[in-house]
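Materials and Methods. Structural model of Peptidase S1 domain-containing protein. The 331-residue sequence of Peptidase S1 domain-containing protein from Podarcis muralis was retrieved and submitted for structure prediction as follows.
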Amino acid sequence: RLRSFTCSCWVTLGQSHFFEVSQPHSPHRMFVVGEEGKRRLLAALRLLWIVIKPLVDETTEEERIVGGHDAEVGRWPWQVSLQVHHTNGRYLHVCAGSLIDYDSVLTAAHCIQNRTTPQLWRAVFGLRRLYGDKIHSVNSQVMKIMPHCRYDARSHVNDIALFKLSQFITYNDYIQPICLPSTPLLLSDRNPCYISGWGLTKENGTPSYILQEAEIKVFPHEVCNSYDWYNGQLSRNQLCAGSESGHVDTCLGDSGGPLMCYLPDDDKFYLVGITSFGIGCGRPKLPGIYIHAANYRSWIDSRLLGKTSIVSIPCVLIFSTVVWVTIHLVL
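The predicted structure was written out as tokens:
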């Protein structure tokens, strides 16, 4: 990713589409562009603009929310931007997460990949706009990364991880934890559900630097696994949510972020799902897939309390590199 104008950009357009014209007594050369040359030059300038434009406002590595709109300041106070330190000294947004305790952020295991060193990461809280919203934001380094040891990169099962922070986060109007359900919630039309993130606004589209939100529907498991949807690929630990038409969805970069539902009787939002993966973004009958948070409550509690079990065979997490054509991880 470009961060300054210290590098050079070379574009090959082809000499046959340019005509050199000499000017008397001038050290400079002028070129007259033919019709084909104009077309190639415009294409090159568009490409150059795509490369240079992020210099104005830092870019993200991986992004996502389709069919959303700008969230108000403080609307989702548990929303976290998980960022990785690069060799140029800057941090880039990689994934989202949810604050669940003073020093704990829940996210997706696939976000980690080979970046297992905690010192590479930081968590940013209270953000609405990436890379510039410092009024209410708080940064924290990461002390420990705890992915699920049985995470499978191919099937995406157990796609959950806990980040322990190096400091306690002070709660305020813009930074609050989200509630965790102790058992799976029975959702109805009385329970509006939402997604949020800084991801792509459409498949192969552009990211939003303003936090996006969208209301979505959580579908019954049998609908998600029907033959013309995911055709039995999903386990009971996975949810699908979005819209049947595909007009609302998560996309690249929203990984690890919250799927949250409101319970009016409790007057609280609960973390129902963790953004995991999808086939494309915003496709009909292929909504985003989320880890069913309630099914991992005991796993989460054991990490929060530091009571991870000790077994005779080491629990090794293997992150394999998988090349996807249509199926992509929601990074």
